[in-house]
Specification:
Structural class: alpha/beta
Largest sheet: 9 strands, mixed
Number of domains: 1
CATH superfamily: Thiolase/Chalcone synthase
Keywords: Acyltransferase, Fatty acid biosynthesis, Fatty acid metabolism, Lipid biosynthesis, Lipid metabolism, Signal, Transferase
CATH topology: Peroxisomal Thiolase, Chain A, domain 1
EC number: 2.3.1.41
Family: Belongs to the thiolase-like superfamily. Beta-ketoacyl-ACP synthases family.
CATH class: Alpha Beta
Protein name: beta-ketoacyl-[acyl-carrier-protein] synthase I
Number of strands: 15
Organism: Eucalyptus grandis (Flooded gum)
């Protein structure tokens, strides 16, 4: 008992505090006595009053109620004077933050006094044993039902169309959006193909003045974001009724404004006076999301995340979490990239990551096919309009699907190569299922990351086989087989494809899967034609350079 009540700085100060009234009485009775004399008298008085057992070199104090009443009845002056009159125990000198706790930062003793104290009480510790007090019950937060998140709008800008329905119908028909690059002369490059957007207009969506200044990744983002609002029935009247402090934008980009930044470098070769004054803000990855929030007047969570090709999934999951936590009711989320420019193409060529099947562009992206030779760059944007369920119901929104949850992990292995054992991907999928409360058997559709690279496709498939090995209903496809890899926008555009699959009951084909890799079970993969599927739960994967893994889950709204 005595050991457990070893003296602490707090106990010492409490003993000092309980004597404050006596100290004030002493001052009144003897106003002209020296502090040293009063200190000695007070110590004797307190010891005779408070100590009941000193047989083991320890002190005990009588009922706590007396101590508390003395403490509460003392004045600030009494407390301060007690601190000066009563010597703290040795533990006090090892405690850095206690003096500031009582507001007496400047009160202390010098080194000589410390040495004197150690000599006076060698190996001895003063202890104050407090009698047990009744525990105070703490109020627990009431258990509240978790806020559900639903998808009520979608917007896309892709090589296969800028309307979610047109885009998905093209996917169902197996149309390829990959072709020869036309926006610049790429004859010097070994790769001359991409999922390039051939026709795009901002008319009716973005002011002409901004359209001339902004990088394409921002134009794609703002257009897709506003299309998502339009698709979600956010009319002018509906927008007026929104609590703008609880509406946010979280749309990211992997590459940012590469064209604007590259043009600034070229201008700098002549003179800094030739540089675009907007080159810095319009090159940063966060500015598209910020500009959209400014345009809408939305004052809720607003930022962007950049995790290479996993960007969109990170943004979608974080946006949903803002809604779940009650920080927002409405969120626009997704990703955008426009890296089909010389510096972007050249950079990925230098990485030796791109397909060089220039003679047959539509057949270049071939996930899981044994003859795949690299991914095909794409460009565009995808944006989801996420809403809290009750909020969506109140405004009569059309609910497309429910967002169930997701997860992130890191391979912690290599800048560009996936972990050879696929442990990071496996962990990510398992954590996503656990977070969403979904069993492995419930997942019957997966939109895979599968970019058509020799290493990445097989590593992801093995992870899927490990996680869903006993799921006979599972079907897997890759949207990248038709539009290429949209980098930071890939996850959002593929999320739109997943939601459309839930809505329509059709999953799009895997084109160019002519000779499946030996490590792949073709029965798990969607064939060359669209297939009917009653989706219970859909999983969408996105992975990025740096070992970023992400998995998100959607299901029909019930």
């Amino acid at each position: 008992m005595a050991a457990s009540m070893a003296a602490s700085p707090l106990c010492t100060w409490l003993v000092a505090a309980c004597t404050s009234v006596s100290w004030e009485d002493e001052l009144k009775a003897n106003p002209f006595q020296g502090s040293r004399r009063l200190s000695k008298r007070l110590k004797r008085k307190v010891l005779s009053k408070c100590c009941s057992d000193t047989s083991n070199g320890q002190s005990t104090i009588s009922p706590v109620s007396g101590l508390i009443s003395s403490f509460c009845g003392s004045s600030i002056q009494g407390l301060m004077s007690s601190c000066l009159a009563f010597e703290p125990c040795s533990d006090h000198y090892r405690c850095n933050g206690l003096s500031s706790l009582f507001g007496s930062r400047n009160v202390g003793i010098n080194r000589r006094q410390k040495r004197t104290n150690r000599a006076r009480y060698p190996g001895e510790t003063m202890a104050v044993a407090l009698q047990p007090v009744q525990e105070v019950s703490t109020m627990k937060k009431p258990v509240t039902k978790q806020r559900r998140v639903v998808v009520t709008g979608m917007g896309v800008v892709t090589p296969l169309g800028h309307d979610p329905n047109i885009f998905y119908n093209n996917l169902l028909e197996g149309v390829s959006g990959i072709s020869e690059i036309e926006t610049f002369d790429c004859a010097q490059f070994p790769t001359r193909i991409a999922g390039e957007i051939k026709s795009f207009s901002t008319d009716g969506w973005i002011a002409p003045k901004l359209s001339k200044r902004m990088d394409k990744f921002m134009l794609y983002m703002l257009t897709a974001g506003k299309r998502a609002l339009d698709d979600g029935g956010m009319t002018d009247d509906a927008m007026k009724n929104l609590d703008k402090a609880k509406c946010g934008v979280l749309i990211g980009s992997a590459m940012g404004g590469m064209k604007v930044f590259n043009d600034a470098i070229e201008a700098l070769r002549i003179s800094y006076r030739k540089m675009n004054p907007f080159c810095i803000p319009f090159a940063t990855t966060n500015m598209g999301s910020a500009m959209l929030a400014m345009d809408l007047g939305w004052m809720g969570p607003n930022y962007s995340i950049s995790t290479a090709c996993a960007t969109s999934n990170f943004c979608i999951l974080n946006a949903a979490n803002h809604i779940i936590r009650g920080e927002a009711d409405v969120m626009l989320c997704g990703g955008s990239d426009a890296a089909v420019i010389p510096i972007g193409l050249g950079g990925f060529v230098a990485c030796r990551a791109l397909s060089q099947r220039n003679s047959h562009p539509a057949k270049a992206s071939r996930p899981w096919d044994i003859n795949r030779d690299g991914f095909v760059m794409g460009e565009g944007a995808g944006v989801l309009l996420l809403e809290e369920l009750d909020h969506a119901k109140r405004r009569g929104a059309n609910i497309y699907a429910e967002f169930l949850g997701g997860s992130f992990t890191s391979d912690a292995y290599h800048m560009t190569e996936p972990h050879p054992d696929g442990v990071g991907v496996t962990l990510c999928i398992e954590k996503a299922l656990a977070q969403a409360g979904v069993s492995r058997e419930d997942v019957n559709y997966i939109n895979a990351h599968a970019t058509s690279t020799p290493a990445g496709d097989l590593k992801e498939y093995k992870a899927l086989a490990h996680c869903f090995r006993e799921n006979s209903e599972l079907k897997v496809n890759s949207t990248k087989s038709m539009i290429g890899h949209l980098l930071g926008a890939a996850g959002a555009v593929e999320a739109v494809a997943v939601v459309q699959a839930i809505r329509t009951g059709w999953v799009h084909p895997n084109v160019n899967l002519e000779n499946p890799d030996k490590g792949v079970d073709p029965s798990k993969l969607v064939g060359p034609k669209k297939e009917r599927l009653d989706i219970k739960v859909a999983l969408s994967n996105s992975f990025g350079f740096g070992g970023h893994n992400s998995s998100i889950l959607f299901a029909p709204y019930k």
